[in-house]
């Protein structure tokens, strides 16, 4: 009996080792539309007011390959690009997005804190203030740029309206969507399975644990890309939403995740299966370097011009090495 158990375990370990490096033996490779390195978080919330048209234009000027944004639904069924369910933080006006008609939404404040860069603010130098825009406006302005949509509410109407817009603009393969909440993510998949999708938080953590016990090479991955937090940056900076819950338990969880997510072999396996790995949010050269050295395909940033400069410097370095 012991010999059988040992043999079974040895077979499992060897199979896991082989499939980790050669996943094509078991799984069909996925195919993301383009190679994405530069992703602008909320359009680049450190350089322009978050989720504004000015932010998205600035990101595209700086060569972004993906615009990350957030969506809510107004009372008159307009899909708007806005992060919070409540208006106060970003506009200074009390109330909820869902309770307002689109035409009655207030403009953004001219100065907003940068969520993932504590102590930093983004201040708009011009007037009038930026207005809240619709998802339709983004699709119209940037038809060829991949848009990454975070569905912020468990609202069937919101999911259906976003799906309808994606179909209307025929951009199923130029749009990534999903949600942190697995129930919302499941609704997205059921509503429009043709749209590219990233996993909810719980599923992402599940794949990380599966890697550490050797199961990941055997598991199917029904997602088109992964979006992992850059835990080292979160641990060092403690963004605003972490500071609000800064207990020893939170710090212990962050420390554990830093360790579990520090294995380049995990990201390399995912990429070998044709699935890009995006990390959020990196805002400094050190953080960009950490993310790419870990194995990120692309980095989400609040500072599009800074990431562009970093990528351009890397390209020049490769060119110099090649020519020497």
TrEMBL record:
Ranges for domain GP-PDE: 36-311
Cellular component aspect of the GO annotation: endoplasmic reticulum membrane
Cross-referenced Pfam families: GDPD
Keyword entries, A-Z: Hydrolase, Lipid metabolism, Membrane, Transmembrane, Transmembrane helix
Protein localization: Membrane
InterPro entries in alphabetical order: GDPD-Related, GP_PDE_dom, PLC-like_Pdiesterase_TIM-brl
Metal-binding as UniProt keyword: no
Family matches, as CDD domains: GDPD_GDE4
Reactions accelerated catalytically: N-hexadecanoyl-1-(9Z-octadecenoyl)-sn-glycero-3-phosphoethanolamine + H2O = N-hexadecanoylethanolamine + 1-(9Z-octadecenoyl)-sn-glycero-3-phosphate + H(+); N-(5Z,8Z,11Z,14Z-eicosatetraenoyl)-1-(9Z-octadecenoyl)-sn-glycero-3-phosphoethanolamine + H2O = N-(5Z,8Z,11Z,14Z-eicosatetraenoyl)-ethanolamine + 1-(9Z-octadecenoyl)-sn-glycero-3-phosphate + H(+); N,1-di-(9Z-octadecenoyl)-sn-glycero-3-phosphoethanolamine + H2O = N-(9Z-octadecenoyl) ethanolamine + 1-(9Z-octadecenoyl)-sn-glycero-3-phosphate + H(+); 1-O-(1Z-octadecenyl)-sn-glycero-3-phospho-N-hexadecanoyl-ethanolamine + H2O = 1-O-(1Z-octadecenyl)-sn-glycero-3-phosphate + N-hexadecanoylethanolamine + H(+)
Gene3D superfamilies: Phosphatidylinositol (PI) phosphodiesterase
One of the protein's GO biological processes: glycerophospholipid catabolic process
PANTHER family attached to this UniProt entry: PHOSPHATIDYLGLYCEROL PHOSPHOLIPASE C
Family, similarity comment: Belongs to the glycerophosphoryl diester phosphodiesterase family.
Protein name: Lysophospholipase D gdpd1, variant 3
The species this protein was found in: Clonorchis sinensis (Chinese liver fluke)
